[in-house]
Specification:
Layout lengths: L9 E7 L3 E9 L5 E6 L13 H7 L1 E6 L19 H11 L4 E6 L3 H10 L4 E7 L7 H9 L1 H18 L4 H7 L10 H11 L6 H11 L3 E6 L7 H11 L2 E5 L7 H4 L7
Length: 266
């Protein structure tokens, strides 16, 4: 498919780097001039961005949501770090002929959104981070690294249980669970979790230079009742990036996505 052809909403996929398949989802107005690149959480997949379909259609936005390696229909890339994922995103944007995007990341997708800021700042019009994940330090960080496979196993088990409970309604199942996240099993989720809790391959100095050079506005959304990513941790990220903070005092980690407004990002 050439960059001039207009794709239909739903799953799209292509082959990049000769050997790996990279998949993405499109929602909203697929022919729109303004595009949002959504970086899903951990675990997750691009299908999560369907939550924004109605608002994207109202605002005339096209949403591109890429399955990271091992999730959905994208092939695994064992041993990758966060920064290397930017090459997948660049390949998809090049394939679609998209020059500039507003980037939105959620939770474990936020480090990957920052990777885009480091690797392709000239293609970013704005950056939004919802409940941005940062690795913990010291003993807490050690526990986080050691327990990573078990946390993903629990997530897989809960996802499987939710899928069975909601088996009568595809819409409910898609909202409560993400079957695409574990479509290939648990390994992709473990790879992703290890990538975000270890060295990202991202330099804070490079992020500040990119923001200053390209004048990219940054927004950080925080859930006041988030017990997964503490509000104080999200504020640290906002301070580092000189970001505007939008607090949703009654939102938890899971419900924060329902509170976001795409209009502030484009």
């Amino acid at each position: 498919m050439s960059g001039k052809e207009l794709p239909r909403a739903g799953l799209r996929q292509t082959l990049v780097r000769q050997t790996r398949r990279v998949a993405w989802w499109e929602f909203g107005e697929v022919s729109a001039k303004k595009t949002v690149l959504y970086c899903h959480g951990t675990p997750g997949s691009g299908v999560d961005a369907q939550l924004f379909t109605a608002s994207a259609q109202d605002l005339g936005l096209r949403i591109i949501a890429i399955d990271r390696p091992g999730y959905g229909h994208s092939d695994r890339e064992p041993g990758r770090n966060v920064a290397s994922w930017a090459h997948d995103a660049q390949a998809v944007l090049d394939h679609l002929g998209i020059e500039k995007v507003a980037v939105v990341g959620y939770s474990g997708g936020c480090p990957h959104a920052l990777a885009l800021l480091q690797e392709m700042p000239e293609r970013i019009s704005s950056l939004g981070l919802a409940a941005p994940f940062i690795p913990r330090k010291g003993f807490a960080g050690w526990v986080e690294r050691v327990s990573a496979p078990w946390r993903m196993f629990v997530a897989w088990a809960l996802n499987s249980l939710g899928s069975r409970v909601a088996h009568r309604s595809t819409r409910v199942r898609n909202l409560l669970t993400d079957a695409q996240a574990f479509r290939q099993g648990i390994c992709g989720a473990i790879d992703d979790e290890r990538a975000i809790i270890n060295n990202w391959g991202i330099e804070p100095g490079a992020l500040r230079i990119a923001l200053a050079t390209h004048q990219i506005p940054v927004t950080v959304w925080i859930g006041g009742r988030d017990r997964v990513i503490a509000p104080k941790e999200s504020r640290q990220v906002a301070h580092l990036l000189g970001a505007k903070i939008i607090l949703h005092p009654h939102s938890t980690h899971s419900t924060l996505l329902f509170s976001l407004s795409l209009s502030s990002k484009v």
